[in-house]
Design brief:
Radius of gyration: 21 Å
Distance between the termini: 39 Å
Oligomer: single chain
Strand content: 25-35%
Number of domains: 2
Low-confidence stretches: 1-7, 16-31
Helix content: under 10%
Number of helices: 2
Structural class: mainly beta
């Protein structure tokens, strides 16, 4: 179970809040400086999730827009990083998992605690020091879980109330929440049916104004929403695919919430320094309490 939580934590932090490092442009010198002059800037992104291991802390340097962007070229693998709860200090190690270079605490049996203040310290090889603090929200739990199986309607414009995918949860520290719908298998479909079939999965073809095919996030297997209540009738456009999904509610701290609004409420996910929470550099260190449940979305009835 701990291994499963650890894997999900890494995936969540990879998919949650993608930021284009090349947008962190800082001009140096006067107007006579070469137009391609560029000074890379350090960038930290880290999130702690209640009842999950410490993982997915990324440290990078920004890249100029005058060159092709490649995330792996910006990763810093030899920084000294630790997280403290005021009593214990947890040194982090670097690894590459799932194609992403990040730092994690090797004792994956240790789980982040609710309503606890954690401090992040990052020291780069050149001596640059960065840091941040977050106080984890209290633990939330399901009141009404997602149904194990839901039938995608033939016509999403004609639905009866209440919707069949109504969910509810206990309050967090904030009055605002983040909803995430994650497709767990974009290929398999028939293997989850009873009896099993060879039918492959497919997209629901949900396209809205903010996430058309011209937007990079259109190809993400995760879909995000913003809520201001502890109950919601999840809209069908939350699902890009049919098949097996994980539906999660995140109760964020202020750092997480500000970062989410800044990076997910725009079509291009631009970085805005005023919403960051890292001292000595750019980026964010935040936390959230998460509750998740699986559901299977049946294809439209023919």
């Amino acid at each position: 179970m701990k291994t499963l939580l650890y894997t999900k934590s890494l995936y969540l932090q990879r998919t949650i809040l993608a930021v284009v490092f090349g947008l962190l442009i800082f001009h140096t010198g006067c107007e006579e400086s070469p137009p391609n002059g560029y000074t890379p800037q350090p960038f930290v992104q880290g999130f702690l999730f209640v009842d999950q291991p410490i993982a997915g802390i990324t440290v990078s340097v920004s890249q100029p827009l005058t060159q092709p962007f490649k995330a792996s070229e910006g990763w810093i693998s030899n920084a000294s990083i630790s997280i403290s709860d005021g009593v214990n200090t947890f040194p982090l190690s670097y690894h590459v998992q799932g194609g992403v270079g990040s730092y994690f605490y090797t004792d994956t049996t240790f789980l982040v605690q609710p309503e606890t203040k954690y401090s992040l310290t990052v020291v780069l090889p050149d001596g640059t020091s960065m840091g941040g603090e977050t106080t984890t929200p209290k633990r939330i739990t399901w009141v009404t879980q997602p149904k194990p199986v839901i039938q995608y309607p033939q016509d999403t414009t004609k639905l009866l109330a209440p919707d069949s995918i109504r969910i509810a949860w206990t309050p967090g520290n904030n009055t605002e929440y983040v909803l995430r719908s994650l497709c767990l298998d974009t290929l398999g479909y028939g293997t989850y049916l009873s009896p099993p079939t060879q039918e492959i999965n497919g997209r629901t073809n949900n396209i809205d104004f903010f996430e058309g095919p011209d937007v990079p996030m259109f190809y993400s297997i995760a879909r995000w929403g913003f809520l201001q209540a502890t109950t919601v009738n999840t809209v069908w456009t939350a699902f890009r695919w049919y098949g097996k999904h994980e539906v999660s509610i995140l109760a964020p701290d202020d750092n997480f919430l500000s970062w989410f609004k800044a990076t997910q409420f725009t079509r291009n996910g631009e970085y805005r320094s005023q919403f960051g929470s890292i001292r000595g550099g750019a980026g964010v260190f935040g936390s959230a309490s998460v509750v998740s449940g699986e559901t299977f979305v049946l294809k439209r009835q023919k």
